[in-house]
Structure formats: structure tokens, C-alpha cells
Amino acid sequence: MPNKISQILTVLVFSSGLLSCSEQAEVTLPEIQTEQSQETQITFNTQITIREIMASLIDPHADALWNSVKVVSDENGITEYYPETEEDWTALRISAVTVIEGSNALMMPGRAVAPPGATGIFPEYEFTPEEVAEKLAADPTSWVGFAIELQDAAIDMLSAIDTRESEKLSETGAYLDEACESCHSVYWYRAGI
Fold first, then answer.
1. Is residue 103 part of a domain?
2. Domain that holds residue 156
3. Tens of each residue's pLDDT in the chain, 193 residues
4. How many CB atoms lie within 10 A of CB 158?
5. Closest Cα partner for 124 from 192, 56, 50, 49?
6. Burial class of 133 by CB neighbour count within 10 A (0 to 12, 13 to 18, 19+)
7. What's the pTM value of the predicted model, to 2 decimals?
């Protein structure tokens, strides 16, 4: 113990000797905080639109999840498809996580519905971006609720992926489809479609 104290004193003496050689030197010790720091306001970049998130994150990865377990009947008979390799399961895990995090992005306030001047593929059957923006402004709670349902379904699919349960993956894919269609019936399709 005395050896350790003498080492500390040597460092302090050496340090103060260096400081005396330079008038410019300044030593600042970190303050010990006794109170909790005030909450910091975080600003998120929301320049990517809802439509872009749907097209880039949600749709392609939801399709990958849905197509991972299926039965195809054709001229060759009935063929069952399901994930078989570690690469298959890893790709599906990436898709599930992407949908989960894409759902978070959809819930961020201040995001535009679509780029300026955007129209849909079938404009006569779809709400315009302006109409969707009006719906979101009038009832943001429903929008968040739909995004949470989408996220919950993707979390269930992630669980099936992590436990390598193809049947459960198929079942939870149906919940993901329900979550998507519930939201689309309010924010995308016009009545009667």
C-alpha cells in the first residue's frame, strides 16, 4: 500500500512540475454530478416518407416472411416450401427485425405520407397522400395502434423464426396479414374495395 501511495504522489509532483513549466496549461477535473441530468430532447430525421418506408422496409420483408412457408399446387403436383437452412432462417430473421423496426419508423411523428406530387398506382381506388395526412392528423392514435399491431405480429414471427417452427411461422404470418389489411382498409383503400 505505501508503494501505491508513493506512486500517486510521484505522478502528482511530476504533473505539477510540468504545469509550472507552461503558463498555458490548464487542468480540468470532471465534475461529480450529484443530481440527475435533465432529459435531453432528441430530434429524429423523418425525411423518409411513410410510403417510402412501406415500399422499402415493410412490403418486401413482409412478402419474404409470407412466402417462407407455402404450399404450391401445379402441374408437378403439390410442393411444400419452408425454411430449411441456417441461411433461410437468418434471412427471415432479418426480415422480421426490419418489419419490427419499420413499424417504429411509421410511428414517428412529423413524417410526410408521400413525396410531393406522388400518386398511387390506382388513384381512383386509393386515398391521396393529402387525404391520408388528414386522417392521420385527425386520429394519430389509430395509426399508432395499427403500427403496434403490425409490430406485434412481426415479433410473433420472430419468435417462430428463433425457435425454428415453420408451422408457427405460417400461423403468425396470418396475423401479420390481418394487421396490414386492417390498416390499409382505413388509410389506403377507398370504401367498397
1. yes
2. 50-187
3. 445 444 433 333 334 443 344 344 444 445 545 555 566 778 889 999 999 999 999 999 999 999 999 889 999 999 999 999 999 999 999 999 999 999 999 999 999 999 988 888 888 899 999 999 999 999 999 999 999 999 999 999 999 999 999 999 999 999 999 999 999 999 999 876 5
4. 20
5. 192
6. middle
7. 0.76
